[in-house]
Amino acid sequence: MRIVSLVSFFLMVIGAVNWLLVGVSRFDLVRWALGRRSLLGRIVYSLVGVAGVTQLSTYIWNTVRGKKKPSAVAV
Questions:
Q1: Are 62 and 68 in contact (CB under 8 A)?
Q2: Which pLDDT belongs to residue 27?
């Protein structure tokens, strides 16, 4: 399970960097690297989405089970 978590975290970081580039400079790294209407690009986008859902569900599962306390914002 640790390998799945590491891979999904890595994909989530790739997605975050891609969205940062889109937001700041309107540059889509995945589309640039893999082509505008590429099947491989759609696969990458899908894997990034699955990775985000996996990380979210893992965080929620660990929080509910008490393994990890939700971080509080200090004011």
A1: yes
A2: 93
